[in-house]
Predict the structure of beta-lactamase.
Amino acid sequence: MANYIFGLLLCISMYSTAHAQKTDKKLTNNLKELIAGFDGEIGIYVQHFKANKTVELSADTVFPTASIVKVPLLVGVFDKINAGELLLQANYRYRLERAYGGSGLMQLFKDSAQIDLSTMISLMLTYSDNVASIWCQELAGGGQAINPLMDRLGLKDTKVNSRTAGREKIWEQYGWGQTTPREIVKLMRMIEQEELFTPRLSSKMYRYLKNQFYNERSLSQFPAHIATASKTGSVDAARGEVVFVHAPSGDFAFAVLTKNNKDQRWTRDNAAEELTRKIANLIWNHYEPKHPYTAFDPID
């Protein structure tokens, strides 16, 4: 896989040099105005692929991923599947000692319940299941295997920190994982474009990412019939989301990451979550003036 990735990244670099991206000045200015006064740190990266335009606001600043780290975990698991070391249909036996708090359903499983890897991955991404995610991280070889893989993909700041030897101090600062707005969008684009593994495996990865239970943030700001793939992440002082949107004007993707937030409430009107919705709606209506969307407030 290493030679394949090296060749792929070389081609991407050559293509990028010949097709330099342009800054979307109007959207950049509108987003700057929208986020002014946010009580915390925020980074945004937006890329419209057909128009070849971007928005970069602290796009290379490192932020906590919270559960967005589950996207690199997905890639790590599929790297093992690609190598023939894991099978989606393989069964595993759940034990109560694996119970872990936070989001997800597996912590409610009975002892000795069986689950296959495909269902585990689905729970990790759709319901952001922490038990399934930690299990998938183990099966992928942990941060010791996933982090070098991110390096080979050119994602130097996208890392798994939790349960990874040598990263204890970094874990104290960023938690489970870390990334930048630009890098997590790049990783989503690689998955969507089937650049990491075979088309069959790549499309399977993307299908998992399209099933999102937590749809009250950015996804609530687009018409319901629009296809998207996304992952949210939340801890007390950081809320984030990465979204890939298949819009009428052409595909676009964006990431909104925050940290050191003053508002740490676990409510729908959390300041960072409210701001993320406004950002998503602004981006949609900027790119889709022929299909304007006035979103309703999320339903409790």
Summary: The chain has two domains: 22-61+180-300, 71-178. Confidence is low (pLDDT under 50) at residues 13-18.
